[in-house]
Amino acid sequence: MNRYAWVDAAYDLSWTLAVIQARTENEARAVYGADQQVGKLTFEQANDERTEHLDEYGLVQLKAHGDYLVAIEPNGWVGNDPEVARKLSSPTGLFLSVYWSVNGHQLLQATDGQITGRFEPTFIGLPAGANDILPGWVGDDEFTLEHLRSASLAAVERQTGVAFDPAWLTDPLPTYRVPS
């Protein structure tokens, strides 16, 4: 059974999840532009705060996990920015994020300060994906439409060794404002 099957039915989940190797919270906050801690919030609380202040600021939640830092953005997309990925993987390291919302779905990977993957998984092998950068680990049948979200989390786990823990959505995490 797919450990991430739950996310395929989480239709209202809109976020960016990034896994960043060998970076501190302070380094990530600086690159994300996170300027003020709003407290320790659950994902739902952070999402409500984000919705209430949609035009004013975004939010990022940070969770240290071994040699990695996990950044969770409720209804946010800063972690889908190639410049953020380059900076947080430089000079050596790995940055891998997955973004999805009603507007799209994208995975972004940077290694040692260089973009090594940026693609919309539903367009792999199709003309619409012609400008995608596919890392060598992506196969033609890696991301099926019915399991697109769970396949994305599984890919993040395979590439980083970090298994997403659903408790990260219910545990209060340090949450910071990100300017819009």
What is the secondary structure topology, with strand pairs?
Blueprint: H1 5-8, E1 15-21, H2 25-32, E2 36-41, H3 43-52, E3 57-65, E4 68-74, H4 82-89, E5 94-101, E6 104-111, E7 114-119, H5 148-160, E8 173-179
Antiparallel strand pairs: 1-4, 1-5, 2-8, 3-4, 3-8, 5-6, 6-7
Please give a structural write-up:
The chain is of the alpha+beta class and about 180 residues long. It has one domain. It contains five helices and eight strands; from the N terminus they run H-E-H-E-H-E-E-H-E-E-E-H-E. Strands 2-8-3-4-1-5-6-7 form an eight-stranded antiparallel β-sheet, with helices on both faces. Strand 5 and strand 6 (about 105-110) form a beta hairpin. It is globular.
Helix percent reads 10-25%
* Unreliably modeled segments: none
Structural class: alpha+beta
Query: How is the biggest beta sheet arranged?
Result: 8 strands, antiparallel
Largest beta sheet: strand ordering: 2-8-3-4-1-5-6-7
Strand % is 25-35%
State mean pLDDT (0 to 100 scale).
94
* Alpha-carbon Rg, integer: 15 Å
Based on Cα principal axes, name the global outline: globular
**How do the helices and strands follow one another from N- to C-terminus?**
HEHEHEEHEEEHE
Number of domains: 1
Tally of DSSP helical segments: 5
The CA-CA distance between the termini, in Å, is: 39 Å
Report a brief summary of the structure.
By secondary structure, the protein is α+β, with helices and mostly antiparallel strands. It is 24% helix and 32% strand.
